[in-house]
Amino acid sequence: MAKGIKTIGILTSGGDAPGMNAAIRSVVRKAISNGVKVKGIKKGYQGLLNEEISDMDARSVSDTIQRGGTILGTARCNEFKTEAGQQKGADICRKHGIDGLVVIGGDGSYRGAQAMSRHGINTIGIPGTIDLDISCTDYTIGFDTAVNTAMQAIDKVRDTSSSHERCSIIEVMGRNAGFIALWCGVANGAEDILLPEKYDYNEQNIINNIIRNRKKGKTHHLIINAEGIGHSTSMAKRIEAATGIETRATILGYMQRGGSPTCKDRYYASIMGAYAADILCAGSSNRVVAYRHGEFVDYDIEEALAMQKSISEYEYEISRMLAI
After folding, report:
1. Which residues belong to any copy of the Phosphofructokinase domain (predicted)?
2. Which of 153, 150, 165, 39 shows the shortest CA–CA distance to 102?
3. CA-derived radius of gyration, the chain
4. Concatenated DSSP letters for 285-317?
């Protein structure tokens, strides 16, 4: 076998995302089919430093593909951001015979993977984040489930908003990226969509839009607000005071992270997991798996982290046009 990979370690890092278990399952079973042993690392980089490491086999991942979250657990780890922590992590990998590592997570997890590669551990990243904010890939594990969960919840809130002739502000996740807000805004027929990348913080424009629509005969008004803008409750109070229209805020929060993954998240995560195991066994390191222009590919981590991603101007304009 190229580069002599004998044992792969696998961990999930950062925020959990539906579909991570499908990726874990696929890495484990593909590696075993390649004649490579697999060790699971609990609680991300923190678990690595604590040596929470155990053997995995094909049965270890049975009955997991439909489960949300991550069976390996995840945690934040400030120690691993230091050079000493990274060296310790690499030494622990060698101590446990791990010569290849698969890391499932976002950009922060990739920087940890990059550090492990620097310290001599062949490492591959898989994009796992509901925010869709990894620049090198058109798909990230968990986004499809999260956006469908949010869409269904917004439909329910909209029903009662319509019944009471209210204005509703619904806050979805997305600290620095507005993809969930944009998709839900279009899919739920929102009158206003507030994105971190686009919002000018001019509430008067929103107020004017609400009043204008009410004069046209619209009996309710839906605003999708991204987490990165936030302050939905205070915004609702200001809008109600300015318009005289009953306004309520709903913050969907962490419910968007949970739940059984959609077919797309299970399928894509499974292919990405197998792809990661294959390129790792073939001797690749410091790479990230991506889905780009309809194909599963891989990039150098430095190249991936240097890429920029933004909201499509065309898609944003379409979202505004559809709200007329």
Report:
1. 8-279
2. 39
3. 22
4. -SEEEEEETTEEEEEEHHHHHH------HHHHH
* Catalytic residue flag (residue 131): yes
> Smallest Cα–Cα separation from 73: which of 52, 95, 94?
52
Is 255 part of any known ligand binding site?
yes
Quote the pTM value: 0.93
Residue 175 marked ligand-binding: yes
* pLDDT tens-digit profile, the chain (324 residues): 345 899 999 999 999 999 999 999 999 999 999 999 999 999 999 999 999 999 999 999 999 999 999 999 999 899 999 999 999 999 999 999 999 999 999 988 999 999 999 999 999 999 999 999 999 999 999 999 999 999 999 999 999 998 999 999 999 999 889 999 999 999 999 999 999 999 999 999 999 999 999 999 988 999 999 999 999 999 999 999 999 999 999 999 999 999 999 999 999 999 999 999 999 999 999 999 999 999 999 999 999 999 989 999 999 999 999 987
302 is in an annotated binding site: no
- Catalytic residue (choose from 131, 133, 192, 298): 131
Q: Single out the residue of 139, 95, 99 nearest to residue 288, CA to CA.
A: 139
Alpha helix stretches (DSSP H) within 136-288: 143-163, 179-187, 203-215, 232-243, 263-281
281: its two tokens = 């066994």
